[in-house]
Amino acid sequence: MAVAIETSGLRKSFGEIEALRGVDLSVEAGTVLGLLGPNGAGKTTAVRILTTLLPPDGGSASVAGLDVVAEAPRLRAKIGLAGQHAAIDENLSGFENLEMVGRLYHLGRKRAGERARDLLDQFDLVDAADRLAHTYSGGMSRRLDLAAALVASPPVIFLDEPTTGLDPRSRQALWTAIEERVAEGTTVLLTTQYLDEADRLADSIAVIDHGRVIAKGTSDELKSRIGGDRLEIVLEEDGSPEAAQRALAATLIEPPTIEGRHLHAPIRERRGAIAEAVRLLDAEGIPVEDVAIRRPTLDDVFIALTGRAAEVEQDEDSEEAA
Amino acid sequence: MRHAIADVLLLGKRNLLRFRRSPEMVIGFLVQPVMFILLFVYVLGGAIQTPGLDYVDFLMPGIIVQTIAFGGFVTAIALAEDLKKGLIDRFRSLPIARSAVLAGRTVSDVVTNTVSLAVMLAVGLAIGFSFNANVLEIVGGIVLLLMMGYAFSWIFALLGLSSSTPEAAQQVGFIIIFPLTFASSAFVPIDSMPSWLQAFATVNPFTVIVDAMRALWLGTPAGNSIWGAVAWSVGLIAIFAPIATWRYKTTVSG
User: Fold this and answer.
1) Which of A84, A254, B51, B70: CA 20 to 30 A from B89?
2) What domain range is B230 assigned to?
3) Do A196 and A253 have their domain in common?
4) Cβ contacts (< 8 Å) between B3 and chain A: which residues?
C-alpha cells in the first residue's frame, strides 16, 4: 500500500526549545494515524510542518509523495487542514465560508457551491447555511471548520485536536464524518489528547512526548505492551485487603496490588476469573463490594509510557507558541 | 496566473462583504470623517488663521489625507483577527499565492478608500470647498491619494500580522500614526507651531503629501512636494510590501 505521509528524523526548534527531536512517522494511504501526546509534546509543530506552515530545521517529510519544503505549492492542493482554532470567517455565512475555501482550492464557482451545499448537509448545518458564522455555537463552528478542510476532497487531511472543547453530540458527528472520509480512501493524521478518540478513530497510534515518538502501534498493540486484562476488586469497609491478597495469590500470575480497599492484578484468562475470585474470597469470609475485569485503556498506556496522564493542564493556547 | 488574480479578487470581495454585514464599521468609516470635517470647519476653523485660503479649502486636502492614510486601519485589525482565529493558518495551507491574502486586503482598502474619498469630497463641496485646478490636477490628486493610502495599507498589514490581538493593533496604530498626522500641515499652518515642532513637521511625510494635494487641488506652490509625495508612497510600498509578505509567510497563529 502507498505511503501517504512520511517523516524521517524531523527536527524543529524554537529558540532554546526543541519541539521535535527526530520524529519518524509513516502513514499508509487510506488509514488514520493518531498522534497522541500531552500539551507541548510537539504534535502541533508536526502538523504545521506537514501542512507547510513551518519549515523543518532538519530531517525530511513528504505528504502525498510531495516534499513539504521543495514541493510545498503542489502539496497544498492535496491537503486539508483543520487546526486547533475554528478557522472560519465570522462575517460570512456558513455557505460563503465553504464556497470561498472551495474556490481558493480552484474548484470553480459552480463546483465549489455544490461541494459547499453537500458538506453543509453532511454536517447538519443546512438550516444555518445562510446565517453569518458569528451566530454559530462552538460545535457548529467546529463542524464548519472541518467541512472547510474537506471541501476539495483532498487525499490527506490533518486534524489538530478537532474535538477539543466539543459537546459529546458534536464529537460523535465529527467522528462519523471522519470515518466516512476514511472509508472513501482519505488519509487522516489526527492529533488528540483524548485517548478514547484515538482508540475509536486511529488505525495506528504514535505516542509523542518531548518531541520524540516514544511508542508506535495499533491501539491493541500498545495496550498489550502494558499487560492484558486486569482483575479489580473492591472490598467492603470491614474486609481485610491483606487477607484478600493471600486468598487470591494462588490463582493469579502475581499477587494483587493493594490501594486502600481496592486490589488489582493482571490475569491470564478472562473466563471464570470473576467466579474464581469471588469463590476464594467467600471461602475466607472476606466481604466484597465489587469485582470486575477491566481492559487496559489508552490512558493506562499513556501513564505507563510517559509517567503522567495525557490530559494535563488545559494550557491549549500556549502550546508551542513560538 | 489566471488563478492568482481570481484569488486576490475573491479575497478582496470577502473583505468588502464585511462592511455590508457590520453597519457599525460603515459608520466608523464614513460618518467619522464627515463629523471631523464639520467639527474642524465650524468649531475650530474660525480660530485658525490660514493666510490666502479659506479654512475649508485649507482643511479638505489635509483631512482627506489623514482619513485615507487611516483607511488601511481596517487591514491591521482584520489581519490580527484572522491570525488570532487561525484563518491565516488555513489560507497558508491552501494552494494560493503567498501574496494573495495581503494583496486582497490592500486592494479592498483601495475600494473603501475610494468610497470614503467620494463621500468626503461631496461633503466638502457642499460646505464651500472649491477646487482651483484643472481636471488633470484633480484626477492626479485622487491618484496620489489612493497610492498613498495603498502604501499605508502595507504598513497596517505588517502591524496587523505583528500584533498579538486586534485590540493591540488598534492601539499601536492609533498611538503611532494619529499624532503624526497632526504634527503636519494637515490642520494648521506649520509656522503657527513651536519651532522644535516645525522642524519635525517640515520633514513629516504627511506634510509633504498634504502640500502636494494643496498644490494639485488649490494651486498653491508645489515646490518638490508632488514628487516627494510620489517618492514617499512608492518608497513605503517598496519597503513594507516585502516585509509584510515575509511576515505573512512565516507567521503562525499563537
Assistant:
1) B70
2) 2-250
3) no
4) 106
Total domain count for chain A?
2
Q: Does residue A247 share a domain with residue A217?
A: no
Q: Which residue of B has its CA nearest to A157?
A: B93
A44 shares a domain with A185 = yes
Clarify whether residues A243 and A219 are in a common domain.
no
Task: State which of A197, A224, A251 marks the end of a domain.
Answer: A224
pLDDT at A165 > cutoff 80: no
In this complex, which of A80, A87, A105 lies closest to B86 when CB atoms are compared? A87
B164 touches chain A (CB under 8 A): no
For residue B254, pLDDT over 70 is answered with: no
C-alpha cell at A110: 459552480
Residue A244 lies in a domain: yes
* Domain shared by A216 and A249, yes or no: no
Q: Are residues A243 and A211 in the same domain?
A: no
CB-based burial of residue B238 (10 Å sphere; 0-12 exposed, 13-18 middle, 19+ buried)? exposed
Provide, as residue numbers in chain B, all residues whose Cβ is less than 8 Å from the Cβ of A86. Answer: 85-86
The pLDDT score that the predictor gives to residue A317 is 38
What contacts 24+ positions apart, CB below 8 Å, involve A262-268?
A: A262/A232, A262/A233, A262/A234, A262/A235, A263/A232, A263/A233, A263/A235, A264/A230, A264/A231, A264/A232, A264/A233, A265/A230, A265/A231, A266/A227, A266/A228, A266/A229, A266/A230, A266/A231, A267/A228, A267/A229, A267/A230, A267/A231, A267/A293, A268/A228
Q: Convert the pLDDT of each residue in B1-39 to its tens digit.
A: 678 899 999 999 999 888 777 777 777 778 889 999 999
The reply to whether B3 touches chain A by the CB within 8 Å rule is yes
The residue segments making up the domain with residue A280 are 229-294
User: Is residue B169 scored above 90 in pLDDT?
Assistant: no
- In a domain? residue A273: yes
Residue B173, min C-alpha distance to chain A (Å): 23
Across chain A, where does the E strand assignment appear? 3-14, 17-28, 32-36, 58-63, 66-67, 79-82, 156-160, 187-192, 204-209, 212-217, 230-235, 257-259, 262-266, 288-294
Are residues A87 and B3, on separate chains, in Cβ contact within 8 Å?
no
- Residue A313 is assigned to a structural domain of this protein: no
- The DSSP result for B143-179, as a single string, is HHHHHHHHHHHHHHHHHHHH-SSHHHHHHHHHHHHHH
- Cross-chain Cβ contact A86/B93 below 8 Å: no
SS3 state at A20: strand
Q: Tell me the per-residue pLDDT of A215-249, one tens digit each, with 9 for 90 and over.
A: 898 888 887 776 677 888 898 888 888 888 888 88
Q: Is the same domain home to A212 and A235? A: no
